[in-house]
Structure formats: structure tokens, C-alpha cells
Amino acid sequence: MTKPILVLKDIVTLVNKGTSSETRILKDLNLTINDGDFITIVGANGAGKSTLFNVIGGNLPIDAGKLLLHETDITNESEEERTKFLSRVFQDPKLGTAPRMTVAENLLLALNRGAKRRLKPRQLKQHMNEFTKLAATMNNGLENRMDTATGDLSGGQRQALSFLMATLKRPDVILLDEHTAALDPRTSQELLHATNQRINEDNLTALMITHHLEDALKYGNRLVVLDDGQIKADFKGPDKQKLTMEQLYQYFEV
Ligand SMILES: Nc1ncnc2c1ncn2[C@@H]1O[C@H](COP(=O)(O)OP(=O)(O)OP(=O)(O)O)[C@@H](O)[C@H]1O
């Protein structure tokens, strides 16, 4: 049986609180994320997709409703506390990695996350084999650049590294915030393919925002349509498999 990992219950988020321009962005949003779910999220500009990730990540406060992780109320936990169970990959290749550090050092940083330990050369040596194997799963030559400073990588390699760093410690939930949007079409497809493979093989739980409906249909076991701060549709399993581009496109017609 599938177990809920994260539950969003009647979530409300306000901006410009207490002013005449106070606005509700998320409007009693309900979403249950189960163990092993790979959910693609689509919606028009301004629908609330990034706000949803900010609320889950603790970057934005929740004004009403509850956020439960494994049935524990984490509504008021800080962003820092949530990094223990959550990781996020952003659209911008410059975010997520330390540019002056090498690929291997960045992976070690990710492995030591939360441990407050300094990087030791001995530790790097110890993990090099494992890191190189891991980098090879991205199928973009990252394994040949283990000693390269991250700032000198291609955008695709850098995003692949950010993704690996985000998955290394098997967080309960991974948020992919249009993580291939800044890449050329071919590189984007390659990274999506590698992303999908790793999520499926390791049975990770992930949410992925995308503006590419083909990708939203192709990947994941669920597809969620966000509209005006609410979940407009949530296609699962066979329903998602049957869903067509034309049907999905209708949600974007005004
Ligand atoms: N801090 C804020 N102050 C005022 N309005 C905000 C703030 N954050 C978000 N909004 C508004 O909330 C709405 C949802 O924004 P959000 O960025 O979540 O949408 P999105 O679906 O991610 O859009 P996009 O596809 O363009 O990235 C938008 O109308 C946006 O202008």
C-alpha cells in the first residue's frame, strides 16, 4: 500500500499581509504526496507553482492549514529544519553548487550536509570511486570532470551535479523547480531522462514543475494541474497514461 509522505491540508498563503493589496495565493490547497510518487506539475504563469514549492520548502509562511510529514505537523518548521527531509533543484545552474569547488568536493559537501564537518582530502579519496560511478549515471561526461571546478562545467553538467547532490542523501521529497528549463532542448531531454531513471531506480519521491506539457505527460506517475492557487486536476496511474496533449492543453485555454 502506498504511504503518504507529505500532506498539504487546506493550505492558504497570503502576500502583502495586512495591506490593502493583501492577496491569497494558495487557496485551501490540498495535496497528498505518497511514497515513491513522481508528480509533474503544470499550470499557467502565476498559477502558484513556485509558491507551492516555497511553502513546502519553508521559504514562505503558511497562513492557514497544515503541512504534515509522516503524520507529524511541520507547518511551523524553519527552512533550515526542512532541509533534513527535503531538497530542491532550481532552474538556474548557478544555484545549488559551490562554483570554486570541484565536482567531487561538491558531492562530498552534499554527503556531509548537516554534519558540520570540514572537508578532508582523505574523505574525498575514500569516496572518489563511488562519486565517479554516481556521476556516470548522468550520461553526460560528468564522471570525467571530477576534479573540475563546478563553475567551469557546462550548464547541463552543472544541473546534473545539482540533481545528484539533491538526491545523494535520499531526502523524503525532492523538489525539481524547472531544473532543465535553462538548458538547450537536447541537453534538457538527456537530463530529464537521467532524472527519471534515478528517481525510478532508487524509488525516490519527487515533484517536478515544468512548462513543457510533453515532459509532464511523459514522466512521472502523477500529473497535477495548478490553477489560481488550487489543484485543478490530479491524474494518477492509468488516467495519467491515457491523458493526451489536447486534453491537457484545455486547462490552459482562457
Ligand atoms: N511575494 C509576493 N508578493 C506579491 N505577489 C506574489 C509574491 N509571490 C508570488 N506572488 C504572486 O502569486 C502568484 C503566483 O506566483 P507563482 O510564482 O507561485 O506562480 P508560478 O505558477 O510559479 O508562475 P510562473 O510559471 O510564472 O513561474 C502570482 O500572481 C505572483 O505575482
From TrEMBL:
<protein>
    <submittedName>
        <fullName>ABC transporter ATP-binding protein</fullName>
    </submittedName>
</protein>
<dbReference type="GO" id="GO:0016887">
    <property type="term" value="F:ATP hydrolysis activity"/>
</dbReference>
<dbReference type="InterPro" id="IPR003439">
    <property type="entry name" value="ABC_transporter-like_ATP-bd"/>
</dbReference>
<keyword id="KW-0067">ATP-binding</keyword>
<dbReference type="InterPro" id="IPR027417">
    <property type="entry name" value="P-loop_NTPase"/>
</dbReference>
<dbReference type="InterPro" id="IPR015854">
    <property type="entry name" value="ABC_transpr_LolD-like"/>
</dbReference>
<feature type="domain" description="ABC transporter">
    <location>
        <begin position="6"/>
        <end position="253"/>
    </location>
</feature>
<dbReference type="Pfam" id="PF00005">
    <property type="entry name" value="ABC_tran"/>
</dbReference>
<dbReference type="GO" id="GO:0022857">
    <property type="term" value="F:transmembrane transporter activity"/>
</dbReference>
<dbReference type="GO" id="GO:0005886">
    <property type="term" value="C:plasma membrane"/>
</dbReference>
<dbReference type="InterPro" id="IPR017871">
    <property type="entry name" value="ABC_transporter-like_CS"/>
</dbReference>
<dbReference type="GO" id="GO:0005524">
    <property type="term" value="F:ATP binding"/>
</dbReference>
<keyword id="KW-0547">Nucleotide-binding</keyword>
<dbReference type="InterPro" id="IPR003593">
    <property type="entry name" value="AAA+_ATPase"/>
</dbReference>
